Every structure is written in structure tokens, then in C-alpha cells.
């Protein structure tokens, strides 16, 4: 017998929940077949079979809380592949049914209220008489006329963790948000001019996020407190920029980290973000990839958001919110012109970051984005 165990979990995670069994007792499993999924506070982990054999026992059912290295089930690796039982012929039963049942005729009608086609079987006379003489159903048997139904579904472990972290961030920090807007004309023009050359060279599309990551990294160098966090009575400063990118998935919001973003080229940033998005959808992001991070960027604009106040990703001290680019009238050199504008929002922990510093940091990002040539040249 081979035991199916919970894998070794990171130090910050002590337990998990059995999310779904893909096999049931008696099923034959091949080597590396995914047989069960467990859900931690951050990701869903697929547990493959380490041997081929028959799943003989499930020790932890779906929804159970399990610990590291706990036995989830047993695989009998000495069992042979079960043979499929031949299906029994159905001709005899069909003949018997045809002999005993009386013929019925079907009339196809259309209900006036729904317009749906409904088949009504015309019963034999004797059966019809029995139906007519049968008593009408009592009120207790009547079907409810309304569809005001409710469904109670337990929160997944990931959703509970998201809820707890967001609530903790609002309760344990002095969170404040400052706003600004950026003219996206230069970036959009640059993308249009170089998108084909960029994709041909690097095999990835030139998106907006790489500009924002670059602008954030350069601004974090100027304002190191925005890249720091509070630990007890100390302030911890980072000599590096690990940028967390908020990614939406079916299981909830995840924030994988671009490690050493200050050393990455724009093509590396774009490839990293595409990879995060694909694996977040597939549920294959690793726990270590979502741990850490010194600053977060969230793009609500992809869903159409014009303005929001993002919540801190604790223990980080600041988060940048991007929004939808929309043409708006603005005053430029004394004239009203139409420009593609985006609102920016910076939420920050006022305990460590002063208002002046937060505003200057956001203006630094704005200036870098409105003149991307200086951003890329680092002047």
C-alpha cells in the first residue's frame, strides 16, 4: 500500500482543506494522475499519484481540515487494472416492455405562457378514467409558486483568507488614499509605434503594466519609505523592489510577485505578468510565488473601473491602483483638448508614510508615465 499524503507546507501555512477528490475508492490511477486537490490559504495544490494502482481508501473527505504529511488515502500498488464488465443485452427487456405496455399516442402542444413545446401523452381509456377519478392533491402537496430561493455555501479557505487579510489591513493600519490623473497619450503612441517590433523580438505583447512597474520602481528608489513596512517598533527598509501584481482568478484575488523588478526589462515584466495570469486561471501558482512583495499594483481598469480606493496588501505600506483609460476634456496650455486620461490612486499607511511623501511619490509616477522616454532612459 502507498500512502497519499499532504505535501510539506511553507512555514506560514499550518493546515489545508481537502477541496476535491478526482478519484473514488476502487478507481485505477496511473502514475502522476491528479487524485486529490487541497486548498491552502493562498493556493490550490494538486496531489498526484506516486504509483500506479487502485485507490483503496479515502481517509479525509472533501471539506476536511488536514495537516502537513497527514494521510489522505491509500493506493494498492499491487492491484491489477480492473477489467470492464460486458454490458448485458437489452433486447429481451425491450421486448417484454413492448408486450405488456399499451400503446400511447403523443400530442405536441405549445403552452401559452412560456411558448415552450410540451408533449402530452394520451392515456388508454381505462387509465384515463382512473386519473379523472383520482382525488386532487391537497394544498400541502402543491408546488411553491415563487422562486425566492436561497443557497448557503461555505467560504473556501482562500476566500476566508482574503476576507481576513483585507479586514485586518483596514483595522491595523492608518490607511489613507491620495489621487491623481495621468495623460496616457505618450504611452499609447509609443505602444502603437513599437508594438509589432516589440512582439517580433520578444514574443510577447507590449502592455501597459510594464510601464507602470517601471515607473513604480523608479519612484520607489526616490521614496524608500513607500517600499518599507512597520515591524513592531521598527521600520524595515528594502534595498530591492519585489512588486506584487494583483491578478483575478476564479478562486479569488491572488498577488504573485515579480522578484527584483528593478532589474527586469520591460519584456521580462510582460512575460512574467502573462505567465501569472495563465497560471492563476489554471490554479497552478505556487505558494512561494505569492509570498513577500514590497509594493503592490492593482489594475481595476481591466474591469471598467474609473476610480477606487485599493486596500493595502499587508504588511506592505502602499498599493497603486490603476483604472480605465478614458478620453476626457482637459485644459492644456490654456485650451480645452481631448486626452486619454487615467485616474491613479495610492493607498498608504499613514503611520509610516506622510501625506507629502505619498503625494510626491504619486506625482513622480505621473511624470514618468507622461514622459516615458525619460523613464526608459532613467533621466
Describe this structure in words.
The protein has eight helices and 21 strands. Mean pLDDT is 83; it is low at 91-135. A hairpin with a 2-residue loop joins β12 and β13. α5 (209-222) packs across α7. It starts with a strand and ends with a helix. It has 379 residues and is of the alpha+beta class. The protein folds into two domains: 2-76, OB fold (Dihydrolipoamide Acetyltransferase, E2P) (Beta Barrel); 174-377, Chloramphenicol Acetyltransferase (2-Layer Sandwich). It has helices at residues 91-100, 125-133, 157-171, 185-202, 209-222, 266-282, 355-370, 372-377; strands spanning 2-5, 15-21, 28-29, 34-39, 44-48, 53-58, 65-67, 71-76, 105-110, 117-122, 175-183, 229-231, 234-236, 243-245, 247-249, 252-254, 257-258, 295-299, 318-322, 326-332, 335-349. The strands form six sheets. Strands 11, 14, 17, 18, 19, 20 and 21 form a seven-stranded mixed beta sheet that branches. It has a four-stranded antiparallel beta sheet with strand order 1-8-6-3, with no helix packed on it. Strands 5-4-2-7 form a four-stranded antiparallel beta sheet, with no helix packed on it.
Amino acid at each position: 500500500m502507498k500512502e497519499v499524503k499532504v505535501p510539506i507546507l511553507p512555514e506560514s501555512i499550518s493546515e489545508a482543506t481537502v477541496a476535491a477528490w478526482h478519484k473514488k475508492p476502487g478507481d485505477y490511477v496511473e502514475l502522476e494522475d491528479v487524485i486529490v486537490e487541497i486548498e491552502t490559504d493562498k493556493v490550490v495544490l494538486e496531489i498526484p499519484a506516486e504509483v500506479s494502482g487502485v485507490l483503496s481508501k479515502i481517509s479525509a473527505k472533501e471539506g476536511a481540515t488536514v495537516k502537513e504529511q497527514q494521510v489522505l488515502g491509500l493506493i494498492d500498488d499491487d492491484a491489477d487494472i480492473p477489467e470492464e464488465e460486458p454490458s448485458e443485452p437489452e433486447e429481451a427487456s425491450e421486448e417484454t416492455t413492448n408486450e405488456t405496455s399499451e400503446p400511447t399516442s403523443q400530442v405536441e402542444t405549445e403552452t401559452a405562457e412560456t411558448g415552450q413545446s410540451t408533449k402530452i401523452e394520451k392515456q388508454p381509456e381505462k387509465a384515463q378514467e382512473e386519473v379523472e377519478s383520482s382525488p386532487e392533491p391537497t394544498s400541502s402537496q402543491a408546488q411553491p409558486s415563487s422562486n425566492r430561493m436561497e443557497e448557503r455555501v461555505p467560504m473556501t479557505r482562500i476566500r476566508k483568507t482574503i476576507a481576513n487579510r483585507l479586514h485586518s489591513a483596514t483595522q491595523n493600519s492608518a490607511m489613507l488614499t491620495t489621487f491623481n490623473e495621468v495623460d496616457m497619450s505618450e504611452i499609447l503612441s509609443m505602444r502603437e509605434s513599437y508594438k509589432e517590433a516589440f512582439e517580433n523580438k520578444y514574443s510577447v505583447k507590449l502592455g501597459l503594466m510594464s510601464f507602470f512597474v517601471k515607473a513604480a520602481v523608479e519612484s520607489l528608489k526616490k521614496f524608500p519609505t513607500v517600499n518599507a513596512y512597520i515591524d513592531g517598533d521598527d521600520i524595515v527598509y528594502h534595498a530591492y523592489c519585489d512588486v506584487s501584481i494583483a491578478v483575478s482568478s476564479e478562486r479569488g484575488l491572488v498577488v504573485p510577485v515579480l522578484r527584483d523588478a528593478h532589474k527586469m526589462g520591460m519584456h521580462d515584466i510582460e512575460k512574467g505578468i502573462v505567465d501569472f495570469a495563465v497560471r492563476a486561471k489554471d490554479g497552478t501558482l505556487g505558494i512561494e510565488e505569492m509570498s513577500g512583495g514590497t509594493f503592490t499594483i492593482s489594475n481595476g481598469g481591466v474591469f471598467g473601473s474609473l476610480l477606487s480606493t485599493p486596500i493595502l496588501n499587508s504588511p506592505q505600506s502602499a498599493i497603486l491602483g490603476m483604472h480605465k483609460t478614458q478620453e476626457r476634456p482637459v485644459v492644456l496650455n490654456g485650451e480645452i483638448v481631448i486626452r486619454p486620461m487615467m485616474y491613479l490612486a495610492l493607498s498608504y499607511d499613514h503611520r509610516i508614510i506622510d501625506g507629502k511623501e505619498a503625494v510626491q511619490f504619486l506625482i513622480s509616477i505621473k511624470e514618468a508615465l507622461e514622459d516615458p522616454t525619460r523613464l526608459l532612459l532613467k533621466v
